[in-house]
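Quality-control log, excerpt.
Job 1 of 2 completed; input and output follow.
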Amino acid sequence: MQYSADRLVLPAKRENNSIRPYLFVNPLQGKHIPTDPADAVGMCSALAEAVNAAYPDDPLYVIGFAETATGIAACAASFLHHAVYYQNTTRESNGGDCILFSEVHSHATDQLLRADGIGEALKNVRRILFIDDEVTTGNTICHLIRLIKSRFHAERLRFSIVSVLNSMPEERLRELHQQGIDCVFLHRIPYEYGKDSILDVGFDPERHLTARGGSEPGRAGNTFFCPVNPRNLVSFQEYQAAVRAYAAEAVHSLPDRPVCPGRVLVLGTEEFMYPTFAAGEMIRQQGYAKEVRIHSTTRSPIIASGREGYPLDSRICLRSPYDPERTTFVYNLRQYDSVLVLTDAADPSPGLGDLCRALEMAGNRHVTVVRWQYAENEGTI
């Protein structure tokens, strides 16, 4: 399937970001706006197909970029022929050994790649794939490549930047190729594509709400204990099996019919995105609901507007489920017959209470929270 700019790019305006005042909302990505999981999975399959064609025999270590690309990176990896290891970059520090790098245009510039196990794993792969939703210059990834090479003496390895969108000029693509870094993507767009169309979007306080102090619903059997944490380097097969088991448990926790015959939302939290893809697709394939949508909360502050064609028409601000001192957002909430909230946040979490309150504000009455917990007595990430 061909993916045009019209299908993949909806420009939106960042709030209070002078370095890069715009961003691209991808309606197929399952992040900022509700997405049919079949569309999200189909796009990831197409991206993986391009990678498989380029590198049919290379054992791969796949790195997905936090937070927006954590879903598409893991989903794309599920279609790769030789994905051996998987890992997300993260903005959540666990105090361990980390490689620190920066993404200067982001709302949260500092990112981490947790380093434990990487040196040994690199002996078993030929190529590292860095998967992101969109790449403009490649500078952030190139900086991380230099750090990996220096830290692990990885000169023999090959590197590829894989993205849904790429807006590098031809000379930059050639420059990277000469450095031994390939670029694989679904679609190229001009640099700063669509920027001028959103610069005059104004702040409408009626579309920017705040949720505080809700009560999180409790249901028996709504915690999945699993040691696999994709913020650390993991075997991709082990991670994939764990996600499938978790998704099955999440779907099983939905209310019985006839409470949920129609519309279902599967909502993730921040970096915890890929399980929403798996659970949403499972609901769709099993015919549990007539309509299923997936998306996630985000740390990215974006202006909501009622302008025709603008992708975000509402925003609710809440405390992060991972850190009550941090602000996070959920966009374009709607009313559904049933909602699954999937998260690996610790229990209890004031931020999850805020999120449930936000869902209630949107008219949702049947909300189930299903946690992925890394150890029975440990809620840290």
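Job 2 of 2 completed; input and output follow.
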Amino acid sequence: MTLVAASLSQAGCAHSGTDQTIAAFEANLSAHASATAALQLWCDQRGLAPGQAIEVEFVSGADEAPPADVRVLLGVDPQAPLGYRHVRLLCGTHVLSDAHNWYVPARLTPEMNRQLAESRVPFGRVAAALNFAREPLASTRRGDPGCPAGAISTHRALLRLPDGQPLALVVECYTEANLGA
């Protein structure tokens, strides 16, 4: 009986520890306008891949259909071109996020658009000079049907320029790798 009680107590502590880690992770995300900056700090603090910069890995295959409200949220008409990136954000070999990003190329510089098309640099780092702010729209913990299995949380946010113009809509699925180390 004592062994069972001890096991249950330890299981409760492990679950509590996971909840505390997720809460700390969520607080880190909330403290940054850029998920890239938040993930870089998290990766460094957790020792997931010392000295490694967050990079993207492009997800190939069919593009995700844009959310029905994307053009309204981004303040663009039906003919305006939208950019789209589906990437995984990596810290070394750890996949920290699976992210969809719909953005307005006309609100970026030509160099930023080139980097987004040709490099493994995350959107947040490419567009950082624009001093965008993050406006959270929704977040859920575990079980979002639009996320890969094992996602610990999902965030939907609008990135806004200093004048209030929307720059991008992001849907980010954060993985269990964020709980490591």
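Post-run check on job 2. The two ends are 33 Å apart (CA to CA).
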